[in-house]
Amino acid sequence: MYDLFISYPRADVALVRPLVEELGRLGLSAWVDEREIGDADAITRSIVEGLGQARMLVAWYSRAYTRSRPCQWELTAAYLAAQHEGGDLSRRILVINPEPGADHIQPVELRDRLYLEGGAGTADAAADLARRIAKRLDRAATTWIGDIRPLQAPSWLAGQRRIGSNRFVGRVPDLWSVHSGLTAAAVTVVTGAGAGGDLVQVQGMGGIGKSMLAEEYALRFGAAYPAGIVWLSAARTGAVVPDGCETEAEGGRHLFDLARRFGLPVQGMEPAAVAAQVSRHLEALGKPYLWIVDDLPSDANADLLAHWTAPSTNGRTLVTTRGTRLDGCGKIHRLDVLPQEDAVRLLTSRQPPRDEAERRMAAEIVTELGRHALAVDVAGAALRVISYADFLKDLRTPSADALALAAELAGELPNGHHPGIAVTLRQSIGRLRPEGVLVLQLASLLAPDPIPTRYIVDVLAEHAGDETAGRRAALLGTQAAEAEALLDRLGPEEVMVHILTARTMRRHAAAPEALRAAAVRVMNRVMRDAADIRKHAALEPLIEHVRLLTESVEDAETAALLTSLDRYESEREVYSLAGTIWRRELEASQSLHGDEHPNTLTSMNNLAATLWNQGDLAGARELQEEVLAVRRRVFGGEHPDTLTAMNNLASTLWSQGDLAGARELQEQVLTVRRRALGEERPDTLTSMNNLAETLRSQGDLAGARELQEEVLAVSRRVLGDEHPNTLTSMNNLASTLWSQGDLAGARVLEKQVLAVRRRVLGEEHPEALTSMNNLARTLLKQGDSSGARVLFEQALPIAQRKLGNDHPITRALRNGLDFVTSLPR
């Protein structure tokens, strides 16, 4: 354990070392780390091992301290700990200011009386300063900083874990401004009811460093959000937005994805109910969390922002956007270009100037680039292979292609500097080896989201026709693009390309059609699991890329990928998106194959099913009647596809209340299937079940019971007593017996179903809870209110915990328990 943690920039080690020696002579123990550390994990380890075991942080706050990323992290950690302890910074932080003024010290709360003036350049000065530090330490807390709150790296509740960038420079006032806005006692948020917590918007042009600032803030200030961090990307990536449903499509899908990641049961719920589930889950964390929304569309309005804001009151929302239309919402922090000193530092970090002439040229280069963060970073990478003089000359003599790109990007870049930025991007791309160009061309086909490296390997292997060649191309290509700062590595398994780089590729080095075809074919293989919701977690990192690849459908492979995307949305029961995608898929199939092709009919049928799920029964019926007419004409009345079309239409007629029409179709289907397939085939049993339900709805309970008993007998014989289909048949028959007044018979079946489901699925499975509700309802009807109460009381807490209060099963159980409770004892 240590009295002091000495936080200082390595450039000042010669000044700090005498001070440390004098502190030792006074009997004070100090943690001093002379290693060069830079990445987030190493900085965190230093903070945990050193600062966490010290009573006070001593910050040697020279101007170099402002530029030191590790120092700023250390200071921030101590500051947040002191705030959590009660806010008295002097108990935990002591600033030594060796500079003549204090304007460089951030945050401003550390200025004035919270710092000691003076340096330690001489032995006497060091001794004097050590004595003054010792006096301050007498008033410091006696416990360790790590005891206040753990100093570990932040936890990531959902979304991509960000790892930060060693190329992040400066922005100290910006970071503290963001923190102040997020933690202010009151911030006016006019994004509508339910928007929780404080809100800060970081606004700025493309490539200026908004996302990197948000990432650095999350890593550096994560301790202020003990419940964790959520990172969401709101970029529009070609996703289809249903007419009139923009807020649901753009602001609702992410909540469904979060609910799935949190393990919340939201299948089939309306967007408002999903939002309520996520809100309750986050509220139950009980502590603040940070909700980051990266790249909100520049044309977003307040309604859309409301859908992206943290859904519970313990959330703090940080938004990055190029837009300026939301100036009335929360605190606005407009991010400017890099300060001159920081821009030069970024430019020269890889290739330091060799002399004064190159230092002057470095300053001129960043001026030509408008101190634009992305351009300066890319230029810095270029200076490893091109001289300062040649680079500056190229900036001042742009080619026709560079000027054309500059004109396209003019509205997104610093005024007057876009030609230089265009030159920088174009030349860096031009220096790439062929594999690097391929990687960036592939990225230009995809969304501005993280790209799994495994997918890059598979696509380049498909494109080359050889797995080994593809792996080699992916490795060399990502390395080459990364060396030019045109690609960022998010970790061992993901990379990301900035949208400005992708736009440059699309404009001046468009991907060949063969590469796009390979990207679609590989994605089709991946999306084979789209209909299995258990596999959706593995698919999520690629879904936005699928949306962009299917933005235009001009071939059968892309149409198939669009179909998989719709199956993905349909399986998640996000029907508003699914319906729009199916419409596009239908139009594409009609264009590619014609109106009567099997693929077109399948698309019509899928769209009809989605319309049915949305409640548009008339629209579903119209499509199903069209499909049935074509299949009857093309295949005949007894073809399996025709019978399927008859069944689908019958279901819609039933839902519309046309029971006679539904019964007529179902009887025709059952007759054909009995003759063609026999009594024991699954399709025949399904037809019998369907017809039985219609008979039951018409009041023909005897006819329904006869069919259901036949189905159950076959299911038990063929599938066994514990097969899910057998249990469903038992449930169906129990319902009919219940309606006939045979409560004893219904009770026997329901007890059997419940026993199997409890044993096979577990007490907390939704189907087991449904069986408990069914049996309790029957017991209640028989007058056994105490037995019903026991089941309701067992099931309701489980349903509330697992499914939420708004789930239909929970509501049914709660209503049952309320009724039993109201009965006289």
From TrEMBL:
<dbReference type="InterPro" id="IPR053137">
    <property type="entry name" value="NLR-like"/>
</dbReference>
<dbReference type="InterPro" id="IPR000157">
    <property type="entry name" value="TIR_dom"/>
</dbReference>
<dbReference type="Pfam" id="PF13676">
    <property type="entry name" value="TIR_2"/>
</dbReference>
<dbReference type="InterPro" id="IPR011990">
    <property type="entry name" value="TPR-like_helical_dom_sf"/>
</dbReference>
<dbReference type="InterPro" id="IPR035897">
    <property type="entry name" value="Toll_tir_struct_dom_sf"/>
</dbReference>
<dbReference type="Pfam" id="PF13424">
    <property type="entry name" value="TPR_12"/>
</dbReference>
<protein>
    <submittedName>
        <fullName>Tetratricopeptide repeat protein</fullName>
    </submittedName>
</protein>
<dbReference type="GO" id="GO:0007165">
    <property type="term" value="P:signal transduction"/>
</dbReference>
<dbReference type="InterPro" id="IPR027417">
    <property type="entry name" value="P-loop_NTPase"/>
</dbReference>
<dbReference type="Pfam" id="PF13374">
    <property type="entry name" value="TPR_10"/>
</dbReference>
<dbReference type="GO" id="GO:0043531">
    <property type="term" value="F:ADP binding"/>
</dbReference>
<feature type="domain" description="TIR">
    <location>
        <begin position="1"/>
        <end position="141"/>
    </location>
</feature>
